[in-house]
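Case study 2.
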Amino acid sequence: MDYVEISDQEELSLASSHSAEGRNVSTGASDTPASILFNKVYDERWMFLRGLSMDDNYHELVDATDDLFEATKDSSKSSKQMIQLKDHGDLPSWAKWSWKHRYLPKDIHESRMMLETTLTKLRKANISNVTSAVCVVLGLGMLFRECGRVIEYEEDEASSDTPAYLANSILDVSAVPLLRAAVSDVLASVVAMIELDMKDKLEVQDIEMEQEEEEEKEAEVEEAEAEAEEAEEDKEEEEDKEEEAEEEEDKEEEEEEEEEEVVVVEVKQTRKRSGTQIPSQNSKRAKTEPNVSSIKSKKPVKAEIRRSTRARQPTKKNANL
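Prediction:
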């Protein structure tokens, strides 16, 4: 594999990545993954990850993973997994939060094939949630920090607890492009998860909006039905009132007729007691018909002849005579 040159500034950045100043981690307090503090009150995890390297590409990956955590932290399942800090089973032992050593094992420093195999695992790791993503970021960060230590290593200045295999380690500047390429692939996966989460949330919002619209429509239909039912009840009530009014009117008319009949009966009874008869139709007829005998006894009246003052003209026959 070809070696790639990097600038002095990049080499200096990598070399300072494992120092207390470059790591932004309290000196000696959180030097290994197993020593970091993480609970609901205090979270040292992101500070530890950012302190592993000053590489911009790596920091972009850490920030994206942090964004993924913020986007999914409302999920009870995601929060529970993060609290438990569950390790990714397919990754190397030093890419897990249970790793208690300051340096990586000797085999990763001595075998280029081992490094490439490890990077392939990190690049193709099944990132299904924020917990698995954080484990991959941890593994890449540990490699970046180890590269910085190798670049900075000076045998005469090394402390007694510094492993001797750093002097001939393959994790020098030539490994940096490999790490950055792996970071780029993992970053794409993390960003895809963020976009998927946003899409799911938008779909949920759309579903919720549709449900709200359906509920509003149902409420409108129910309200319209209630109004129609109320109008029908009012109509029936009005009809009942009209019917009652008609019945009351009929009742009053019947009472008036009954009162009139009572009056007539009382009048009849009063006249009967006083001896006055109510003229019948026959008596009325008798009074109105003339007396025939009186008519016959009367002499006929001669009709008065009215004479004309004009002279009588002779008829045509008499004129001929």
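Confidence is low (pLDDT under 50) at residues 1-6, 11-29.
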